[in-house]
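Q: Structure for this?
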Amino acid sequence: MGESWIKKDGPEGDIVLGTRIRLARNFAEIPFPAVANREQARQVLQQAKQFPSSLRQLTNVKFYELAEVEELERQILMEKHLISPEHTQNTNGKGVIISEHEDISIMVNEEDHLRIQVLFPGLQLKKAWELANQVDDLIEANVKYAFDPDIGYLTACPSNVGTGMRGSVMLHLPALARINQLGNVLRSVSHFGLVVRGLYGEGSESFGNIYQISNQISLGHSELDMLDHLAKVAEQVINSERQARQYLLQEQNRTASEDQVYRAYGILTNARLITTKEALKLLSTILLGIDLALIPDLERCSVKELMVEIREAHLQKIMGQSLPPEERDRLRASLIRERLKR
Amino acid sequence: MGESWIKKDGPEGDIVLGTRIRLARNFAEIPFPAVANREQARQVLQQAKQFPSSLRQLTNVKFYELAEVEELERQILMEKHLISPEHTQNTNGKGVIISEHEDISIMVNEEDHLRIQVLFPGLQLKKAWELANQVDDLIEANVKYAFDPDIGYLTACPSNVGTGMRGSVMLHLPALARINQLGNVLRSVSHFGLVVRGLYGEGSESFGNIYQISNQISLGHSELDMLDHLAKVAEQVINSERQARQYLLQEQNRTASEDQVYRAYGILTNARLITTKEALKLLSTILLGIDLALIPDLERCSVKELMVEIREAHLQKIMGQSLPPEERDRLRASLIRERLKR
């Protein structure tokens, strides 16, 4: 697997960490995964194994049967947002297809037979959609999807019926959090028919002031219309965050903002024990400090990379061993000190 | 004025910052300061002006009329514990006599006509008492004290009648605070007829885990008996603090203790705004770290010195100007960064 989208910066990259398009697809005449028997699940997997050749003209992808992937590696895929938390558990009959640059992943036998995902850095909804669409077309050339001419694509959960599409943008909103406006802004997002989620999607907590905004329904509008709507609302949130950042830079607030950023730096470069949650919060503050040019000599990309490396599975992989929680906090602190000081 | 006791280390100096003996004395036939008229207050001051010559055979002292001392300098004397907070206000008719090493100070027309104080680093109750006694004798050779053969020295407040003596030890108790045992230990102190006070005496808040323990009554026992009792209780508290420190060094607690100390260091060397209260708390943690050899390359005495320099008046003197509170927080942070990094 190559360079992840997480480490790269894209359009509006100071606020938008990434864009995700997900298409839910199912094979015609095979029951949805929740009700499929072992043989049927296997049938889906067998078909999915052919996708690398279907997609060859577009990109290099690789098929993995999840039961054959070590638990730690599955966790890492989850931390990279390439598979969902649910997809790391009960691996029976599950698979994933991942492209070499990790911009395409296809979960097999998750809630639907196929969950085609495209992940891009920054705000690139249209571009991500185009790639997802290409992937979808190349797959559809060889298989028969469950599709109803009146309703559209059929999915396990009614909320995905229709286009089967969910577009998401992952936003870093530290300044809104700092001036206590995050609640207001995120509430207004839901008035536009969009959903706000934490770092790892549905039901997950928000860490490090990172939020995902997605369309809630996938029926009744074209994909491009829905993405256009999502982009417009995202732009509003980006605007609010940008205003909050300008506010933090105003003469009377500047020292307090610097104080916040340098305290975060001081703790991260000195702590001997640190949880993922606290580390993400402080790294978020440092990232803001870099974006506002309040703290020199730190690279944006290394801080973003660190925000992934400190997560449970990544950390254990870096350390080459599975670790009890207290050891993790110690090694996480030590990794952060080393990375930030170099 | 020379080197203050505050910067030096004395016996049990890892826990006992200093020892203070205070004798309350009044002139016979002159009303106590609260009820004396202007002329009578002046009479006291005039007598006190002769003390430098009375004390010459012992040490060099200097008389200051407080009305002629600038406000900032008065604040500094208070922060050095050479005069009380009350003695910095309404300076009319008030004076102070200070020895060149700042180990002796005599407040004139505070609550009593004279408050003879001796301040020593570390735990040195007997030695401090001997010096206070010498000062007292040399003064008494030339003036007539208000004294009742049955009761002893007469004082403005009944609680000081008798010996007029209060012995105090100033203790740094960060480990007891850390393991949440401070309340218990300090409560037990009061069962022994002793009083616990904050940094600047009566009614003052405790900052930086620094507490003063003093005898409550000054009647009914000889000075040496009372000091012996105080010393014994102080030793108990010192013991508890020492056990708490050992506990913090135990294998299973060591990393968490290091974490605490380094976080304090990280914040102090990076913050851009800091209040006296927070700074004292963090410097207290660093001092503990030095005492437990958890943090190398920092000098105990410079940290102790910094604990005084960051206080309002000292800070303004160092900066050469009077400052609004927010500016103080900024310059305090900058002073701390500079001092700790060198």
